[in-house]
């Protein structure tokens, strides 16, 4: 299916790319992840029904509806722009009106990502370069604070990852890269066309002989 056909099947509208203007210098334009890229990600990377996924800078909610429809997992979309948030709610009304009720929850929240308090059940976090590296660092701190409150393994899923995001994770955090998914037909032309998966596993830290708080202080 092409982009329009996928949107029609889910009863949503997410195709149009839009820019942010004015005071939002740390936030990037709205650009949904291509459906073809999501198909390739999900062929390799295991989403489970019991997952709770947070999409930062969710825009109109494409990833949210895609994962909820395909895996029946819980998905939370975080969006600071009021118009995109309203678009996501409108899409949700259309999506839910034509589909059977699922066990996985689906919701959107209008909030600045760096101020959003991570729920203790969230275990997967999606980023398509929604904001500056400064905001990204603050969001990672929020995720790690959540892990301190409720110890669990969590994954970061980065599409089209920036060098700044990756350098911060690898030099200053406890996250380790566990996978890289290169998109067929695109990666050879553009090496940014990939997903990179980072994981924090508290059991691995304990096996290596130190506590999470010790590792955090090293950053």
What is the count of β-strands? 7
Low-confidence parts: 214-219
Spatial separation of the terminal alpha carbons: 45 Å
Query: What is the molecular shape?
Result: globular
How are the strands ordered across the major sheet? 3-2-1-4-5-7-6
Radius of gyration: 17 Å
Count of individual helical segments: 8
Strand content: 15-25%
Tell me roughly what share of residues is in helical segments: 25-40%
- What composes the largest sheet? 7 strands, mixed
Q: Helix/strand-derived class?
A: alpha/beta
User: Could you state the order of secondary-structure elements as H and E?
Assistant: HHEHEHEEHEHEEHH
Mean of pLDDT: 88
Key features of this structure:
seven-stranded mixed sheet, 7 strands, SAM-dependent_MTases_sf, single chain, SAM-dependent methyltransferase, 18% strand, transferase, methyltransferase, alpha/beta, 38% helix, 8 helices, methyltransferase activity, disordered C terminus, 219 residues
List the helices and strands and how they pair.
Layout: H1 3-10, H2 35-44, E1 52-56, H3 62-71, E2 74-79, H4 82-97, E3 106-110, E4 124-127, H5 133-149, E5 154-159, H6 163-172, E6 176-182, E7 194-200, H7 202-207, H8 212-218
Written overview of the protein:
- Helix content is 38%, strand content 18%.
- Helix 5 (133-149) links the parallel strand 4 and strand 5 (154-159).
- A seven-stranded mixed beta sheet has the order 3-2-1-4-5-7-6.
- The longest helix is centred in the middle third of the chain and has 17 residues, at 133-149.
- The protein starts with a helix and ends with a helix.
- It has eight helices and seven strands; from the N terminus they run H-H-E-H-E-H-E-E-H-E-H-E-E-H-H.
- The radius of gyration is 17 Å and the shape is globular.
- It comes from Exiguobacterium acetylicum (Brevibacterium acetylicum).
- Residues 40-99 form the Methyltransferase domain.
- Keywords: Methyltransferase, Transferase.
């Amino acid at each position: 299916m092409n982009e329009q056909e996928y949107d029609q099947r889910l009863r949503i509208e997410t195709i149009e790319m839009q820019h942010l203007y004015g005071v939002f210098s740390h936030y990037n334009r709205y650009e949904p992840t291509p459906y073809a890229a999501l198909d390739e990600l999900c062929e390799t990377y295991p989403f489970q029904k019991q997952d709770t996924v947070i999409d930062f800078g969710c825009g109109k909610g494409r990833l949210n509806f895609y994962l909820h429809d395909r895996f029946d997992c819980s998905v939370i979309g975080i969006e600071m722009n009021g118009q995109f948030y309203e678009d996501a709610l409108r899409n949700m009304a259309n999506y839910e009106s034509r589909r059977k009720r699922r066990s996985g929850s689906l919701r959107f929240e209008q909030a600045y990502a760096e101020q959003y308090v991570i729920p203790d059940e969230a275990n997967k976090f999606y980023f398509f370069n929604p904001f500056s590296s400064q905001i990204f660092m603050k969001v990672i701190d929020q995720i790690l604070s959540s892990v301190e409150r409720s110890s669990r393994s969590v994954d970061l899923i980065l599409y089209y990852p920036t060098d700044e995001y990756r350098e911060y994770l690898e030099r200053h955090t406890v996250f380790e890269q566990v996978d890289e998914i290169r998109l067929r037909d695109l990666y050879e032309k553009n090496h940014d066309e990939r997903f990179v998966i980072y994981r924090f596993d508290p059991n691995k830290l304990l096996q290596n002989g130190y506590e999470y708080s010790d590792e955090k202080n090293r950053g």
